[in-house]
Amino acid sequence: MNWDLIGHEWAVQLLRGHIVQNNLRHAYLITGPSGVGKKTLAVKFVQAINCEDPVEQGIPCQACQTCLRISRMEHPDLFPVKVEEGSTQIKIDQIRELIHRFSLTPYVASRKIGLLINFEQANSQAQNSLLKTLEEPPGDSIMILTATSANSLLDTITSRCEEIKLNTVPISISRNGLEHIHGIPADQADFLAHISGGKPEIALHYHRDPAALELREILLNDHRQILQGNSVERFSYASKYEKDSLMVNKVIDTWSSLWHDIMHQSGKSRAPIQNIDRSTEIDQIVNRVNLGTAQKTLNIFRRAHSLLLDNANLKLTFEDLLLQLPRFENL
Ligand SMILES: [Zn+2]
User: Fold this and answer.
1) What is the 3-state secondary structure (H, E, C) of 47-92?
2) How many CB atoms lie within 10 A of CB 54?
3) 31 phi and psi angles, rounded to 5 deg
4) pLDDT for res 88
5) CA distance 254 to 158
6) Structural domain count, the chain
7) CA distance 91 to 129
8) In whole angstroms, what is the distance from residue 163 CA to residue 166 CA?
9) Structural domain for 54, as ranges
10) What is the domain-level CATH number for residue 77?
């Protein structure tokens, strides 16, 4: 049944059904939180459409030349579009180039496929320039868009696509997939399934890149220090990352995941703890805050996150966040 994807089995069934019934749509929009597996689903879907030697109809072998070229994004009839290095937006020229390529006949496959990754990063000019192609795609071509949510795109874009809405994956399914699809030892699979918060691609990122796990450790230690630190220490921490938006976003993600746990624990929720390696620390903080403080703190992170999405000043936003966090002696 599966495409060796962790979770989202309903989506695989649905898309596989479109292939088997020869009922492919012209445009798909895969939405969901970052790290949940949107791009992976899209790639497996493209493999399933094109595989030379499918296991069954709609199940790609993932080993033939075509499948391999697709997974490397090197297939001549697959056109990936994403933010170019050094830029923060998908630009109109990239969309124009895609439309031009779509107007030519396919090289080897029966159809051309455009894969537009994180399309919420396209400015409205670029989004508008795609509308006509989405409405009248040449031949049998297909556009697959991914985005964090449909709300982040123009209505005119979303209304022309079939939306596949992915949610975070339950820990047990994530653990199982990490162990049995990716061969990660059970203990490590369990740990990664927890700390990735139901986002399998994040778990795999931690698995493949030990430096990312180390960084998480460092940031969680910093958090502990900052909660005990005065405003001078907090200003000094802010200045460390004042020009590095990627790091500030990582800090916000990592620390807010801990406050999620604190909020759930202080609200006596039965939701599993994400940062299972930090349960002692979480308990210590839970003993010192009430649910209201936990929610308020989590909102500080949410506000900073959305301000940064709106291109607010990085240094000021980060300083403001650090100064608003509660302070504890002897944590
Ligand atoms: Zn294949």
Assistant:
1) HHHHCCCCCECCECCCCCHHHHHHHCCCCCCEEEECCCCCCCCECH
2) 18
3) -115, 160
4) 84
5) 31
6) 2
7) 10
8) 9
9) 9-165
10) 3.40.50.300
Residue 199 within a domain:
no
- For residues 213 and 310, membership in a common domain is answered with yes
How many A from CA of 257 to the centre of ligand 1? 38
* Residue that is last in its domain, among 165, 190, 224: 165
Same domain for 160 and 285, yes or no, is: no
How far apart (Å, rounded) are the C-alpha atoms in residues 41 and 255? 28
Locate 227 and state its tokens: 């909660």
Give per-residue pLDDT as tens, 50-73: 999 999 999 999 999 999 999 999
Between CA 16 and CA 51 the distance in angstroms is: 13
Ligand 1 centre to CA of 77 (Å) is: 15
Query: DSSP for 205-251?
Result: HHHH-HHHHHHHHHHHHHHHHHHH--HHHHHHHHHHTTT-HHHHHHH
Q: What is the pLDDT of residues 264-277, one digit of tens each?
A: 999 988 888 999 99
Residue 91 backbone phi and psi in degrees, to 5: -105, 160
- 189 assigned to some structural domain: no
Lowest mean pLDDT among 145-149, 209-213, 306-310: 306-310
Residue 49 C-alpha to ligand 1 middle, in angstroms?
A: 9
218 HSE (CA, 13 A, CB side):
9
Q: What residues have their beta carbon closer than 5 A to ion ligand 1?
A: 51, 60-61, 64, 67
What is the pTM assigned to this prediction? 0.91
Q: Cα(291)–Cα(29) distance, rounded to whole angstroms?
A: 37
Q: Which residue among 143, 165, 187 closes a domain?
A: 165
Q: Are 14 and 147 within one domain?
A: yes
pLDDT band of residue 1 (cuts 50, 70, 90) is low
Residue that is written with structure tokens 């944590």 in the block:
331
